[in-house]
Design goal:
The protein is of the alpha/beta class. The chain has 13 helices and 16 strands.
């Protein structure tokens, strides 16, 4: 992973999608062809007819797709890189986890840089080049979680892109985190976070007023964790909708991670909230839970809500099973919501790429094109539909023109 190949590159024998084949109105196959792809200065420079004899990097007929984006991670406090440890059944509530973190964070910080780098490498090995990472800001961590994460990201800056969310995991007022959150809002981060304002801080308005005002004053986005269901969950979502409606600067920069309350509404009420989310430009970020909680992703997308997807937990003290693989997340989405046709599977890839797709809905080629960022993943697959359905092996990753592996 550390042997990064920089500079301008030409790839030959690159498999690209060129269109759909139809049987009547049904897409039955994705057409592909081989090309040469040139990159320079972090961008795609040209796509030209394939020349097998050209002096170029041989892509061996691998399918080239947009590199993946993990839009919800916690690079600062995963257990990945430490000895195996399954989730404990003794910790049942968020406040139980807060108490555990207060005990363990001083220990975790000792190896935080090394473990963050290992976790980034795991994500990269599965085709991810860009990560939205939350980092703890709380009286136990102080600014150390951010400092350690910044060191790891600096070491990986040629091979991974990131955006950072200040995450008051231990509550803003439940612990004395408000002064720290005010300070970190002035730093080089991208989003102000929050967590379950009613159940942790005992109020929706007090913590949410602070979060939104800090975002407005410091030109940041908002991305809060909201596990609460029922009335408090819906009221928190509607609070953000109202604020984004009132303040245009928050539109497109405001997100609710998890938003489990949306999974427990009537269809009519979900439709109403979805329409309001779309109109206000408030997005939902999901790790795609299943079991008792199935998020209404198709309905949200029908209304035009931006639904981002991330792995969230990757073998940590909250969840044992995170795969660290965006293509596996796309396959999970396809299975949960019945996206099994060639066309539907090809569209599902967008959840792994933040909606950058080789073909538009009608099969017109739209990526790659000269001027696009050279963020590329090569897979052993015949098309994106197969890549999603089979979680095809990742063979190479390129970030801003740098060959990661």
């Amino acid at each position: 992973m550390d042997k990064v190949v920089n500079g301008s590159h030409t790839f030959k024998n690159v498999l690209l999608e060129t269109g759909f084949e139809y049987d009547g109105d049904e897409v039955v196959k994705t057409r592909t062809a081989l090309f040469c792809v040139e990159t320079a200065d972090g961008k795609i420079k040209a796509i030209t007819p394939n020349d097998p004899g050209r002096d170029a990097i041989d892509a061996k007929g691998w399918l080239m797709l947009p590199a993946f984006k993990d839009m919800h991670a916690h690079l600062d406090k995963m257990l990945y890189g430490l000895p195996w440890q399954a989730v404990s059944s003794k910790r049942k509530t968020v406040k139980d986890q807060i108490a555990y973190e207060q005990q363990m964070i001083p220990v975790w910080l000792k190896t935080a840089v090394e473990r963050a780098e290992k976790l980034i490498e795991l994500l990269q090995s599965n085709g991810t080049h860009y990560i939205r990472s939350h980092f703890n800001i709380d009286p136990t961590s102080g600014f150390d979680s951010l400092k350690h994460l910044e060191t790891a990201l600096k070491n990986k800056e040629k091979t991974a892109g990131t955006e950072l969310v200040a995450f008051p995991q231990h509550g803003i007022f439940y612990t004395n985190t408000a002064p720290l959150l005010k300070d970190v809002a002035k730093m080089n981060i991208d989003f102000i976070g929050g967590v379950d304002p009613w159940s942790i801080d005992g109020s929706i308005e007090k913590p949410m007023d602070l979060i939104t005002q800090l975002a407005i004053d410091n030109n940041k986005g908002i991305d809060i964790h909201l596990h609460e269901t029922g009335e408090s969950g819906i009221k928190t979502i509607e609070y953000l909708i109202n604020r984004a409606t009132e303040v245009p600067a928050l539109r497109g920069k405001t997100f609710v991670s998890h938003a489990f309350a949306l999974a427990h509404l009537s269809v009519q009420e979900t439709e109403r909230i979805a329409a309001r989310l779309a109109e206000a430009g408030v997005g939902i970020v999901s790790s795609i839970p299943f079991g008792k909680t199935i998020m209404p992703v198709p309905l949200l997308r029908k209304h035009g809500v931006e639904v981002l997807v991330g792995n969230d937990n990757i073998q940590d003290h909250w969840n044992t099973f995170g795969p660290g693989h965006m293509l596996q997340k796309a396959k999970l989405i396809a299975g949960l919501y019945g996206y099994s046709s060639e066309w539907a599977l090809s569209r599902t890839l967008g959840f792994a790429t933040r909606y950058i797709l080789p073909l538009d809905d009608k099969g017109n080629q739209q990526w790659p094109a000269a001027g696009n960022d050279a963020d590329l993943v090569f897979l052993e697959a015949s098309c994106s539909a197969e890549a999603v359905a089979r979680v095809s092996p990742v063979k190479s990753l390129v970030h801003k023109g740098n060959i990661v592996f």
